[in-house]
Amino acid sequence: MYCFTPISDMFETTESIIIQVELAGVKKEDINIELTNNYLEVSGIKRHEGLTGEEIFQRMERPFGVFKKVFNLPKAVNRDSTFASFNEGLLEIVILKKDKDDSFTLTSIDIK
Fold first, then answer.
1. Of the candidates 31, 37, 24, 25, which has an alpha carbon nearest to the alpha carbon of residue 95?
2. Is 90 exposed, middle or buried (0-12, 13-18, 19+ CB in 10 A)?
3. b vs e for 18-32, b when ≥16 Cβ sit within 10 Å of the residue's Cβ?
4. For 16-19, which contacts have Cβ atoms below 8 Å and span 24 or more sequence positions?
5. What pTM did the predictor assign?
6. What are the tens digits of pLDDT across the range 80-99?
7. What are phi and psi of 94, to 5 degrees?
8. Which fold has domain 8-97?
9. Mean pLDDT of the chain, nearest integer
10. What is the pLDDT of residues 27-44, one digit of tens each?
């Protein structure tokens, strides 16, 4: 199955990781965002509306159909403080960083 990858930017500030994905022509209800471990997946569908099916394209450069983009997050993130906005075809996801990276903790073990 064909799946296109939308263009995106990912950057971080001292407090958060910000991901921006260009999704011009996509409806908000057709976008899915999932955060699993240190991966964020943006997927959905861009519908080809307004056509009758009788058109013969001379050129078709805009992708339509299913899309998917997976981001590997560089820092431990706070899952409870993640939010997204969608305005004029730009999806912006803000993920706050954890104060402390607790994915690896060192435990001292006494030798007897």
1. 37
2. middle
3. ebebebeebeeeebe
4. 16/94, 16/95, 16/96, 16/97, 17/73, 17/74, 17/75, 17/77, 17/94, 17/95, 17/97, 18/92, 18/93, 18/94, 18/95, 19/71, 19/92, 19/93, 19/95
5. 0.81
6. 888 999 999 999 999 998 87
7. -115, 125
8. Immunoglobulin-like (2.60.40)
9. 85
10. 999 999 998 878 899 999
Contact in structure between 46 and 76 (CB atoms under 8 Å): no
**CA-CA distance, 32 to 26, in Å (whole number)?**
11
Tokens 């910000």, residue located = 18
Are the beta carbons of 33 and 69 closer than 8 angstroms? no
Q: Where are the domains of the chain?
A: 8-97
**Among 65, 85, 70, 84, CA closest to 38:** 70
Residues 52, 54: Cα–Cα separation, whole Å: 5
